[in-house]
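Hello again, I could really use a second opinion on something today. I've dropped the whole record in just underneath, so have a look.
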Amino acid sequence: MKIVLLSGSNVGSKTRTAMDYTVKIAHEKYPDAEITLLDLAEFEMVFSDGRNYWDYEGDTKYVTETLMAADAIIIGSPTFQASIPATLKNIFDLLPVNAFRDKVVSMLVTAGTSKHYLMAEQQLKPILAYMKAHIVPTYVFIEEKDFHRKEIVNDDVLFRLERLVEDTVLLVDAYAGIRKVKDEEYGF
């Protein structure tokens, strides 16, 4: 199973901190999985210009091809102006409309205050649904107060991150089973 974690911003530290915890949990719970962390702060991405993702070069090609090869994607996004950052939107623009077909996608969102908790519902989920993702219904919302010196200090957040990883992997397995049953109906 290929799990890709995408830290969707090129600035700040909270989303990356949460993603680091999530990577650690994934490695501990699923040591046989191929786990890749893509932090957009570490890549030189170009803006989408309408080409197919495989026609780009360098970091842009690597990031998009890695996402397309994944079975599961865990997206980490900060909340900027009550929305997703431009760097994350650019990733969605670089990929084809059906990029997430047969992929399970889950989310964790960081924000300065609790007032932005609906950003995932109103911004991320509609984009992911449009791109045909199997969306994990629950997501992890982490506020400013849950961090201290680049550490998560809220045990409930850690529990929810663990559950997010588990739910993501369980849904990958469930959808794989469903696809197998459907494929066997064809008899060839």
In short: The mean pLDDT is 96. DSSP finds five helices and eight strands in the chain.
